[in-house]
Specification:
This protein is an alpha+beta fold and about 140 residues long. It has four helices and six strands, in the order ααββαββαββ. It is elongated and about 50 Å long. The protein starts with a helix and ends with a strand.
Length: about 140
């Protein structure tokens, strides 16, 4: 089972918004939010909350791809998130997430008994490639007790 299939099966919000996992690797995660009238805002594009969920979901997918082998000893948790809406989004949108720190550095901190934090940057784009939003999610790997 792929990370996208696992998240679609276990995270109700992913199913609610019909998010599509296009790519999920330790280097990059790309998710798509189809154009759906039920999730439109007052100007006919995807609601800000739907775009936030899309971007946060992309960040979670890359975290699982990058650190899934650490789940026996640590739990990934989002610490904070900041989003900026840059342009009007109409139609389907994609979120592309990238890690802000090398995986080895984060794992080394975990190995040293620390609780590492690391940023994940996410760009939200329209079909024409224009960036409609940018999000940064700070994640941690909380060591299991």
């Amino acid at each position: 089972m792929s990370i996208g299939e696992m998240l679609a099966a276990t995270v109700p919000m992913v199913r609610t918004l019909n998010l599509e996992y296009l790519e999920t690797t330790p280097e990059r995660a790309v998710l798509s939010l189809p154009d759906q009238g039920d999730f439109h805002n007052h100007i006919g594009g995807p609601h800000a909350g739907a775009m936030f969920t899309l971007a946060e979901s992309a960040s979670g997918a890359i975290v699982l791809a990058a650190f899934g082998d650490q789940l026996s000893r640590a739990v990934p948790l989002a610490v904070s998130a900041e989003i900026a809406y840059k342009k009007v989004a109409l139609g389907p949108v994609k979120a592309t997430a990238t890690l802000g720190r090398p995986i080895a550095d984060v794992v080394a901190e975990l190995d040293a008994g620390e609780r590492p934090e690391f940023p994940v940057a996410v760009a939200i784009t329209r079909e024409d490639g224009a960036v409609t939003g940018e999000m940064t999610v700070i994640w941690t790997l909380r060591p299991n007790s």
